[in-house]
Amino acid sequence: MSEHVAVIDIHSHFFPESWPDLSKRFGTPDWPSIRHLGAGKAMIMVGEREFRPVYSACWDPDTRLAEMDRDGVDLQILCATPVLFAYMRPADHALACACMFNDAALELCARGRNRLKALCQVPLQDTDAACRELTRCMKAGHVGVQIGNHVGDRDLDDAGIVEFLAHCAAEGAAVLVHPWDMLGGERTARHMMGWTVAMPAETQLSIVAMMLGGAFDRLPKSLRICFAHGGGSFALLLGRLENAWHNRELARGTSEFPPSHYLDRFSVDSAVFDERALRLLVEVMGEERVMLGSDYPFPLGELRVGKLVRESRTLSDAQRARILGGNAERFFGLSAAHAVSN
Predict the structure, then answer these.
(1) 340 falls in which pLDDT band (50, 70, 90)?
(2) What pLDDT digit, counting tens, does each position of 265-292 carry?
(3) What class does CATH assign to 8-16+58-340?
(4) Residue 229's pLDDT band (boundaries 50, 70, 90)?
(5) Which of 37, 89, 223, 331 is 20 to 30 A distant from 340 in Cα terms?
(6) Which residues of 8-32 are buried (b: 16+ CB within 10 A; e: fewer)?
(7) Residue 283, helix vs strand vs coil
């Protein structure tokens, strides 16, 4: 590539360095907290249970920017980790958390030398409150919203969630869908299979629910929505889904068209960790609907952001440029000059 391509990582996470004791504030147990261990390391706790080890890249912009420089990343879009969503709590508690962490995200971005942007979170269990918080955040400087892929038994074709997504389209807010609260229970509790097996299944379930549940038929085409982790297992199993739609009326749900009709209604990130999977993803989704996403700075993310796309032997330079940054510029409404400014 003869000229500099804006490299934009659309899927990265943060935690604030500290936040108030939520269990004390709300009078209920098992809220997330952070326990600092020294030397830039910390443990995220859920109540008294250890949830995830993290390090200073989560809260320190200098660490983050240094590692972005190491990996050749110009701009990163950050969002909260789903453990902070509080979807199963009272809506007013989830709203208070959303406001707290949304403001913290913007504070981190303000120290990021114009190279960090934020997605907000919302209390998705309450449609009206979620819409209000999204509007507040878009006015405050967020570039979109991250949502979990379900709220309890409510999937993304639920009427209230579809109403929220329509509001996102009206506000011009990009949407990143992140799996959480994974299916499988005890069967996937071993060997991190909740992350390696159930998480991709959750994402596929959400895409299929939007298709077969008629959500894409009801939503405006102006909605910009992206599914994390390469859309989970969706691309590999599209043929099975398509075959079922054409051969069993029961498998069509309320959708007006077969599943392949809706491929131009959403995007996915590139966090698939395998060149063969990336090649399939581009073939199924189209090069214009895949964006660089790393899951940084977690150990199950891409440890050298962009390595898979840069070193792919099957992508053309034009495809590589689109996936590394061009698609994200359009999806999030970023100018090329802004994307590469330091």
Answers:
(1) low
(2) 999 999 999 999 999 999 999 999 999 9
(3) alpha beta
(4) very high
(5) 223
(6) bbbbbbbbbeebeebeeebeeeebb
(7) helix
Rounded distance between C-alpha atoms, residue 24 and residue 90, angstroms: 15
The two three-digit tokens of residue 310, written as one number: 């840069």
Q: Are strands 49-55 and 41-46 parallel, antiparallel or unpaired?
A: antiparallel
Which residues, in sequence order, are CB contacts of 75 under 8 Å at separation 6+? 6, 7, 8, 9, 115, 116, 117, 334, 338, 339, 340
Structure tokens at 73: 């990343």
Distances (CA, A) of 173 to 108, 117, 217: 20, 13, 19
Q: How many CB atoms lie within 10 A of CB 106?
A: 16
> Phi/psi at 216 (nearest 5 deg)?
-65, -30
How far apart are alpha carbons 102 and 278 in whole angstroms?
A: 32
Coil, strand or helix: which one is 13? strand
Picking from 147, 10, 167, the residue whose alpha carbon sits closest to that of residue 77 is 10
Token pair recorded at residue 162: 């579809």
Q: How far apart are CA 174 and CA 188, in angstroms?
A: 31
For tokens 């009078």, name the residue: 27
Cα(231)–Cα(197) distance, integer angstroms: 13
- Residue 55 backbone zone (phi > 0: left; psi -120 to 50: alpha; other: beta): beta
> What region, left, alpha or beta, does residue 304 occupy, with left being phi > 0 and alpha being psi -120 to 50 degrees?
beta
Q: Quote the radius of gyration of the chain (alpha carbons, Å).
A: 19
What's the mean per-residue pLDDT of the chain? 95
pLDDT score, position 5: 77
Q: Under the phi-then-psi rule, with left for phi > 0, alpha for psi from -120 to 50, and beta for the rest, what region is 141? A: left
Give the type of residue at 159.
A
* 272-275, Cβ contacts within 8 angstroms, sequence gap of 24 or more: 272/229, 272/230, 272/308, 273/302, 273/308, 274/308, 275/308, 275/311, 275/312, 275/313, 275/314
The per-residue pLDDT for range 18-56, each reduced to its tens digit, is 999 999 999 999 999 999 999 999 999 999 999 999 999
Label residue 182 by pLDDT band (50, 70, 90).
Answer: confident
